Amino acid sequence: MDHNVEGKAVSNGISPPDFELPFPDGPETVTENTLKLVELTPDPRHKFIAKNLITHLHQFISEMSITTEEWMYAIQFLTRVGQKSTPLRQEFILLSDTLGVSALVDAINNPPANGALRAVCLGPSSLKMHPMLRTVIRSPRRGGDYMYVEGRVLSMDGTPIAGARIETWETDSHGLYDNQYAVRDKPDCRGRLHSDEDGRYGYRAVVPVAYPVPSDGPVGEMLLTLGRHNMRPNHLHLSIEAPGFKKLVTALYPEGDKYLRSDAVFGVKESLVVKLQDVDDDAEARRRGFPRGGPFKLLQFDIIMVPKA
């Protein structure tokens, strides 16, 4: 049925329920009526989620004695979150991240699995990748200290995984992702490569730096109100896919960052904290493709994936 007839308000075609609800003259009746209508939901999972969501939401409002002004502020806050979102910036994901919801959903759906690499949330700054040229994601325009990342992609039993697609991205030395610049003619500080026949991978990058999540929107205002900083510890994003294995989205966090234990989005897991080695060998730097030579940081890390079976 067409419910968008021009010039006329049209119902969605669903008839009234075959039972009568009492008039909602009191708070308890409002909740009871809403839950009775939830029982009409055809899909069992949808019904289960809606019933519990409404129960907890109404309980929260009743226990807190939320005022009309407070509820209108909440509605206006969420409206501004939506208005701040763009194809390159997802304020709703940022809200979910900073409230710990993204990390909670991730932890529930990705429990530890016998030494496999832990997953983390994708984050609001992931974008469509581009083929990596000469295994480098470091931008010569953005500066920063040299870093070489290498390791192997392995199954849980130690078998090398050849041809695994690795997508990786990070901020530049200024703490900004490429999608945060007003002028973005091409992807920067992000790219794609594949593991070789022995499961090995390696690429040139830049040492990541700590950076603030965007603070010029409603989520930034919320963090100030709660007395929380908006900083993320330095990290390198990775997304790995291989036939027969579960897709893995994760990040590596160099040790020593002062924000590791108070990450604004609760993303750091202990097993993902890594050590960077200092390599002061000009010849080795040039062999790895760093044109200026000189010292660089070496990050060695094996990626352990979980078979779909």
UniProtKB/TrEMBL annotation:
Residues 143-284 form the Intradiol ring-cleavage dioxygenases domain. One of its GO terms (biological process) is catechol-containing compound metabolic process. One of its GO terms (molecular function) is ferric iron binding. Residues 43-115 form the Catechol dioxygenase N-terminal domain. InterPro entries: Catechol_dOase_N, Intradiol_dOase_C, Intradiol_dOase_core, Intradiol_RC_Dioxygenase. Its cofactor is Fe(3+). It comes from the Eukaryota. Pfam families: Dioxygenase_C, Dioxygenase_N. Residues 1-22 are annotated as: Disordered. Keywords: Dioxygenase, Iron, Metal-binding, Oxidoreductase. Belongs to the intradiol ring-cleavage dioxygenase family. This is Hydroxyquinol 1,2-dioxygenase. It comes from Grifola frondosa (Maitake).
